[in-house]
Structure formats: C-alpha cells, structure tokens
Design brief:
Length: about 100
C-alpha cells in the first residue's frame, strides 16, 4: 500500500549558473512525475527558497530513489516526512453543456 510523503526541499542561497542550467530538466521531470501521479503536488515559495512536494510511494526508500533522479538533488537539502493522511480537493472535468 502506498503512503504519501511530504518532501521539503531547501534551495541554495545563491543560484549559480550551474544550478540555473538544471532547472529546465528539473521541470520536465516534475511534469512527467505529476502526469504519472507519483508527485501529487509541487510548490515553490515566492522567495524561491523552499519547494514542497507530496509524493506517493510505498516507503521512504522509494521516495529517496525518486528524489535521486532530480537534476537539482546535489544542490539542495531535503527532509522527508511520512503523513498520517493526505486530503485534497477533488479534481473533476467541467460540466458538459449540450446546446
């Protein structure tokens, strides 16, 4: 059974040219993982210092395996928190209007 983990990623104080160069690959990977519903939510604060991601996985080790694929992983600090529950608003398609 899969659980949901909150991952807090602390970004570097200074974004180097190398770090900036990793961002497009990071976004592509995140978009892919969101589409596959491995990542349920991914947020960046306005100060660009913190990222919060909700990841669905069977264990903390699986979360670490997923994080190890992040292009930015060597440049950031990470903390992982297993959640007792994860509730979110339902996502639905808009109502079909038949004219």
């Amino acid at each position: 059974m899969k659980d949901v983990y909150l991952v807090h990623i602390t970004l570097p104080d200074v974004f180097t040219p190398r770090f900036y160069s990793l961002i497009p690959a990071q976004r592509n990977l995140i978009n892919d993982l969101l589409e596959k519903r491995v990542i349920l939510s991914y947020s960046l604060d306005m100060d660009r210092k913190n990222i919060w991601a909700f990841i669905e996985a069977v264990s903390e080790q699986e979360v670490m395996d997923i994080l190890s694929t992040f292009p930015i992983i060597k440049e950031v600090k990470v903390s992982i928190h297993e959640l007792a529950f994860f509730d979110s608003a339902p996502i639905s398609l808009p109502d079909v209007i038949l004219n």
